[in-house]
Design goal:
- By secondary structure, this protein is mainly β.
- The protein has a 6-stranded mixed β-sheet, with no helix packed on it. Strands 5-4-9-10 form a 4-stranded antiparallel β-sheet, with no helix packed on it. A two-stranded antiparallel sheet has the order 3-6.
- Strand 11 and strand 12 form a beta hairpin.
Length: about 160
């Protein structure tokens, strides 16, 4: 199976909550992760789950399921998984581009900015992790992190130079 986590925006620009403690649907939808079918054949998404490392009250992180999927993902196509409940109309233009399909977790914010996080695609039928990639604590606000090896890093990170 050729599903791969490719990009994430774990910390959308702006305030997470307003002065009344409420979160806007568009702000939630601005937090997302992408995965793509890099294979040559369509993939049935029914057994696939998205998981992450959840931190609860300073304890060690535990794996927590973020969402499940339905349908089939064609080769070369990307799914963007947004936090929140939608609807699609709340997705900002900058968060709409770059993905072929948009789904929602139906949950509050998921990605941990204080301790970093690891999105993982899990196949519940075979009970195997298909792919995972981690990002470091305190990612830049409003920036998309891209895949580099098994890490998700800011796209503007300069390449290493030996000068």
């Amino acid at each position: 199976m050729a599903l791969q986590i490719t990009r994430i925006k774990p910390d959308p620009a702006g305030k997470d909550r307003n002065r009344y403690g409420q979160t806007s649907s568009s702000q939630l939808a601005a937090e997302w992760v992408d995965f793509r079918n890099d294979g040559a054949t369509a993939v049935n998404l029914a057994p696939i789950e998205l998981w992450h490392r959840a931190y609860h009250h300073g304890q060690n992180p535990t794996w927590e399921r973020a969402t499940t999927f339905t349908g089939t993902l064609q080769p070369g196509k990307t799914v963007r998984v947004h936090s929140g409940s939608g609807p699609d109309s709340v997705i900002r233009d900058e968060d709409r581009h770059g993905a072929d399909h948009h789904v929602f977790t139906r949950k509050d914010y998921i990605w941990n900015n204080k301790g970093g996080d690891t999105p993982a695609l899990y196949n519940r039928t075979t009970q195997t992790t298909i792919d995972s990639a981690s990002y470091d604590p305190h990612p830049p606000q409003g920036e998309v992190l891209i895949r580099s090896g098994n890490k998700l890093v800011p796209a503007r990170t300069p390449a290493y130079s030996s000068r």
